[in-house]
């Protein structure tokens, strides 16, 4: 098997020699250049698998090489070597397409991690994963084709990605796809909702703790960064991080090292950071509730996921896929929607996005009594305004999601029917005009089953 070939560009002989020895020990062949001109010449004469370049060179900047590599017929990963603490330069390089960065003085363990991540990133395995992605991130609209293309490109990088979009639009699915197509696919994908961790446990959850570091710490514990070692850490609802943890997260990203609570030593961590939130993070920076420097670190690349109402042409393929999956899970006969039902879905705004579409179809499967789901079976908000004398006009976004509001209407209607029928489920289902199977399904979903 052909050994990988790397180009090392640095004008300091000691650093060039250190990098060359380290890569050779990893069975990577190397060429060395000490300036931009020599590097460009070698790039014309050879097909490299990796380039490591210093930023400051006698006749120019490493950024010139980053730009050049992106224009080649067969681009390959290029990583930059920056002065300690010079994150602005590293961020600029990654925005231009650099695979990753490493700071001086070079930490050899981090260097080996970077090289290993690069070596496992081959065109062959990426192409196969991209084909599979089309069957996971559904939609034939132009905007979704562009999203899939961006995911494929982002998978080739180690740059932090900030995924923005409304609740239910599929941000975690996109994060998982970036991970699955990357060189880290065989390692853990760790997702955490930052708003679901109690404040007093956040530092321990993120970075781990040592035995005896606080009351209740009866043993050493690894944090999320260590749990994601070699893989991807996805911080959902990152806007909910409190200010003290924002500072510690910033340092972990910059130094690629963490310190457990109660520990005196830092340890290197090898993770790809992805983050997301439905909130306007840029506005929070302006208001002072989110650190600007952290925002720039996690938002090296911004990937916006459009709401479902902006890609209505995808509703048909999404609906058919969801119905197929739900009928298989629930061992139900194959079903389909009538033309009128499809028309109703296309006219609906979907404030809850794809997640709401799934909930609507799940409810419809429990309600219908045939092989075709009609528009009335969908129970879209505009068709249930008289349910239990609740008016959707009373809905206030501050009360929570629309889906929660509608579930509360259902809950009240079912409880009233049960009480009026002395908790006889068969009679209550009949009063509500539901089949017994549909009624039982709703009881289970709303946690009303005794």
Textual characterization of the structure:
Helix 14 crosses helix 16 (353-367) and helix 17 crosses helix 18 (425-431). The chain is elongated and about 85 Å long. By secondary structure, the protein is α/β, with parallel strands linked by helices. It contains 19 helices and 16 strands. Residues 383-393 have low confidence and may be disordered. It has helices at residues 13-25, 36-45, 62-70, 87-95, 108-119, 123-133, 142-154, 171-181, 202-207, 224-227, 243-255, 281-287, 292-298, 315-329, 339-347, 353-367, 402-420, 425-431, 436-445, and strands at 5-9, 29-33, 50-54, 56-57, 60-61, 78-82, 100-103, 161-164, 189-193, 232-236, 257-258, 267-268, 272-277, 301-304, 336-337, 372-373. The longest helix is centred in the C-terminal third of the chain and has 19 residues, at 402-420. The protein has a 5-stranded parallel sheet with strand order 2-1-3-6-7, with helices on both faces. It has a 5-stranded parallel sheet with strand order 9-10-13-8-14.
